[in-house]
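Forum: Protein Structure Q&A
Topic: Joint prediction for protein chains with partners

I've read a bunch of threads here and the consensus seems to be that you should model interacting components together rather than docking separate models afterwards. I'd like to see that in practice. Below is the full input, 666 residues plus whatever partners are listed. Could one of the regulars post the assembled result?
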Amino acid sequence: MELNAEAKRIMALSLGKLYSSRMQRGGMKLHRSLQLSLVMRSARDIYFTAKLESDAEAAGRQPGAPGEDEEVAMVTEAVPAQPAGQAATDPQQSKTGTEAHMETEPSPERSCAPAVTQPLTEAPSNVPAKTECKPKPAQIVTPGDKENASPGSGSAVPALASDRHSRKRRGKAAAEPEFLPSKKPRMEQRKRGESGLQSGSCRGGASLASTLFRTIVAF
Amino acid sequence: MAGVGGGNDLQWCFAQVKGAIDEDVAEADIISTVEFNYSGDLLATGDKGGRVVIFQREQESKNHPHSRGEYNVYSTFQSHEPEFDYLKSLEIEEKINKIRWLPQQNAAHSLLSTNDKTIKLWKISERDKKAEGYNLKEEDGRLRDPFRITSLRVPVLQPMDLMVEASPRRIFANAHTYHINSISVNSDHETYLSADDLRINLWHLEITDRSFNIVDIKPANMEELTEVITAAECHPNQCNVFVYSSSKGTIRLCDMRAAALCDRHTKFFEEPEDPSSRSFFSEIISSISDVKFSHSGRYMMTRDYLSVKVWDLNMENRPVETYQVHEYLRSKLCSLYENDCIFDKFECCWNGTDSAIMTGSYNNFFRMFDRNTRRDITLEASRESSKPRGILKPRKVCTGGKRKKDEISVDSLDFNKKILHTAWHPKENVIAVAATNNLYIFQDKIN
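Posted by a regular:
Agreed with the consensus. Here's the joint model:
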């Protein structure tokens, strides 16, 4: 669906801008970072809205759509939690949903594309949905899916992903092909799982996302 | 032709342009702020390289009693230098964000200039006499041999070539964690405010080692941050009142008599959002980039990405006037997001009588709106239309369908040529428009 593709593209674009703003002279501008995160949140909302509809149909057809959760993982946490009732009406729940993992969103494009196009062709492509629908990611993503889901390989920010790995496991070459499920992410997320997350499965991506978010606000 | 700015016969014509003609613009030369002083005789510009250039208007010549004097360079100085914050490993840009003139109290002129972190008070004074005939030193400054001095004389003041000196008299530093976006001199002529993304400080012009924090919107948990301060201004005649605008498109008016910390506003101005125009970028384009009180103090004007709004201070729930600056960009927001133009911060200004307002756009276009006749005009600041006293031809952007002759289509607009900073002479129809590294001065044609 075009809207979904557009939302993904905008999220990728926003991430790129966020990272390049760190290199700017004068340091990161708070206002700019906030605006970028707002755009990402809008894109995420739209993405979830469309996904909600598509997954409702996909659920009848196949048990969970693995690849799609990953994209939203990093961006959702990259957005400041909004107490004023935006998509994160239930921050706890949305965190759960974002746990799906992973790196960043262009990643699972190849794995997710086939899964996405089928159900989404039936989904209505209304833009107005985004204004009224508060996405509930927790409903979409079940723990079972995350176990089976594969962390994507490509990423918009490969550097950061490898930084994250290298922080935890210094000196170890990233030898494992990333598309294979491994025990590593689970151990990592168990560590970070202490921050009150409900389902503790594969959530390497959320750590990236929260790092990303801390980048925005850290001054 | 449309007469905006007072009178149906008003036409704008080119007066002067300052700056290099090179296609290759050095980033340091990009003008980042423009401001007339209270009399309009001085015009100050600040640039990204931290320099301030002040132009002074010539006295009207006796030969041409009806033509206005030209603005010529009066003083140039380096106001701010790049600095490095070692604690945060951040470079502090020397770009001048704002210049505000102080009311003139003696022969010298004073202004405040600020970069992201530090505000400086500069005194610009003229020297046209020097003392000659010192007893203890020669004319070139060398000390005289005391044994050679056999007589005593009184030094005499002799005229010399005019020298304009700028000296930093006060440096107001270390009061802002975030980037300063505004400074505003209070009507009491003793204090001024400075605003960054999350805080507003009140300073006394004489005291540099402390300031009062009067607004603080930093949340306890930064992850809950939802809006930042984008601009602030003191009321032109009520020294207890100021306003600040936010990235959410709201304006808060505060009264400093109410409390020491003005976190609770006295008035809250917000226009309800039109739900049908929501998009990915609705929140970004509603962010207010500039707020200016009218000279009367009865109204204020705000600039967001696509429009200018005039608010009556007595009515909080919606603006009294809304002017579309470049509505044809609404369908291009995605491209403008990609090329970062959507983050551009346009300023706006009133004319001296508050009957007209002006703001910039892309392709070196700038727009003027007459509040009384509701007429608007689009003009261009370009070398091509810069014949001496040449009348500026109104420009039009074609929004779709057939492009008429002389119209320009939206896709042909040059988004690198943006007019962010403009200023209107406080008393006359003379305007200064900053187009990247060039400063254009236009004035009305005297009929």
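The two ends of chain A are 38 Å apart (CA to CA).
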